[in-house]
Structure formats: structure tokens, C-alpha cells
Amino acid sequence: MFLVLKGFFHKEVNRSWVWLLVLAVLYSCSKNEQSENIPLYQKILPGSKELEIVKKDLHSNKYSKPWGTMVYGLEEIFIDNNKYWQLNIDFMVNGKASPDTVYFDAKTLAFYKKSFKNAFSEYTGNLKFENNKLIGKLAPYTEDSQLKTPLLYDRVFPHEVFEPAMLNYLLGVLPLKKGYKVSLPMLDLNNGSSIIWANVEVLGKENVRIKGKKYETWKVLSRGSREKTFWIDTEKKAMIKMENKGVWFQWKLNES
Each residue of 221-249: pLDDT tens digit? Predict the structure, then answer.
């Protein structure tokens, strides 16, 4: 009996080691894939003719998920006689508000500047992108901030970039259809700032129901610094819902 049990436990231990080895390999592969971020498809830069900017509706929408709300408001403004779109984002989760204001060129959708407050890590940010150069800083506003000292940005880029917060609006001006694939240069503030390519693929049409209302949408997968899935209204070109990979709850349109 003892020998049988010994053999059983020996097999179980070996099996556990096999699973640990498999998980380690998968984790290693996922890290390598993320570190080797490259454009996989046709590159679309700010100002590309592929962007159907004239068809863009300056709409505002509210989204919700358990314990959180997110309000996107897009409006047209002028700075030094140049036309820009100002995106105001009111983001609140678990009672903490993190407002974000992003400006981008109304003709090209290139990122221009932004100011924001991160209530979760307790720091603020003010950044500007002009003549392919990013300048600005992040600064803690409490002693408990995860950012202990101000972080300065002063870096030249090879070309203009998009801002991640406006990705759902950007998808709305692309000629979406099943199988459509593009790579978009997104600004990433990590490691002194860099370009992260969002590799976008339209998976097809999908009907979505929210609170009994039916929407016809394009289901769009974006792989970049994070993997996200968007459902974009085929008619209004607005985001209906959004899902972050690894996060339980989706952001869904709240028209109530």
C-alpha cells in the first residue's frame, strides 16, 4: 500500500512540475511578445488620407461598469487660430476621480497636449507634443504618491503620434470592414516615453444588447501596450462597449 501511495505522489509531484514549467514558458513568451512591439500591418500616421476625419461627429457619451463611470466629451476649440479637438474625460472608479483633458489636431488627429490627475497613484501630468518633440512632466501631489520625484520628458520622435485616450474616437474615423488591419503609433509614457504600435484588426460585425437596446457594431481588436476589444457602432461610429484583456468587467454605454 505504501509503495502504491509513494508512486502516486511521485507522479503528482512530477505532474505539478510539468505544469509549472509550462506556465513559466507561457509567461516568458508573453513577455517577449510584449517587448517586441512592432507594426504588423499597414501604418496609419496622423494626417493619413485613410482617416475619414470630415465624417467625425463630435459626440459625448457616458460609460459604466460596476463601481465605475467614465464620461467622454469631445468639442472643437481654437488655440492660436488653429483648430483642435478637446477631449474631456471624467473617470471615476471606487469613488476616486481621475480627470483627463487631451487636445489633438482637428485636421490630422495628431496628439498636441494633455493634462491629467491620476488619483490612484496620486500624481499629475502636463505634457505637450510639438514639432515631433514631447516635453512636460509628471509630479506627485501627496507624500503617498507612487511617483516619489517629478518625472521630466524631453524627447524627439521620428513622426507625430496618437494619444491612447482617444483610440475609440480614432477607430470611428477608419474605414472599418471585416478583415481590415492597420497599425497605429500611440504615445507611451513608460521608460522615458516611446511609441507603442496598436495593431488593430476588425473581427467582423456583432450585434450588442445593452439594457434591452440593440446596436449593430464592428468588433475591433487592438493589441499594443494592452490588448483591448472595442465594439464600434456601425452607423454613429461611437464606442458602444470596451473590454480590457484580463479585466472582469466591460465598460458599456450608459444612455440612461
Answer: 999 988 999 999 999 999 999 999 998 89
> Is the CB of residue 50 less than 8 Å from the CB of residue 162?
no
Three-state helix/strand/coil letters over 83-129: EEEEEEEEEEECCEECCEEEEEECCCCCEEEEEEEECCCCEEEEEEE
Contact present, 179 and 35 (Cβ < 8 Å): no
What are the backbone dihedrals phi and psi of residue 104, each rounded to the nearest 5 degrees, phi first?
-140, 155
Task: Quickly state the pLDDT bin for 55 (edges 50, 70, 90).
Answer: low
C-alpha–C-alpha distance, residues 72 and 100, integer Å: 10
Q: What residues does each domain of the chain span?
A: 43-253
Cβ-Cβ contacts under 8 Å for 241 (sequence gap 6 or more)? 63, 208, 210, 230, 231, 250, 251, 252, 253
C-alpha cell at 121: 497613484
Q: What is the pTM of this model?
A: 0.83
